[in-house]
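re: ur question from earlier - yeah i can do the single chain one, its not a big deal. heres the input i used so u can compare w yours
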Amino acid sequence: MRPPTVYGAEGDHPSPAWLPEGMRSPLDGKLGVRVTDWNPDRFVATMPVEGNQQPFGLLHGGATCTLAETIGSMAAAVHAARRSRSSGSS
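and the output i got, formated as tokens:
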């Protein structure tokens, strides 16, 4: 099994070639979101708790939402890349 290539926070590897231009959010870098593995059936990303806590020391819900949104958006882009484009709506 190959070790994962980590993409994400500033200073790491650049975004993968399959990722559409403009898909990376500056917020992902600020929160430390890192894509660790992907394929058409699986998408894995991590984010540190340290630095993303609420005043009580727990992971902030907004940071959790950012991680979920990043995973969902990028997984959709990976899945749709073969046939079309993906987009979200409010």
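The helical segments are 26-31, 61-80. not sure if urs matches, ping me
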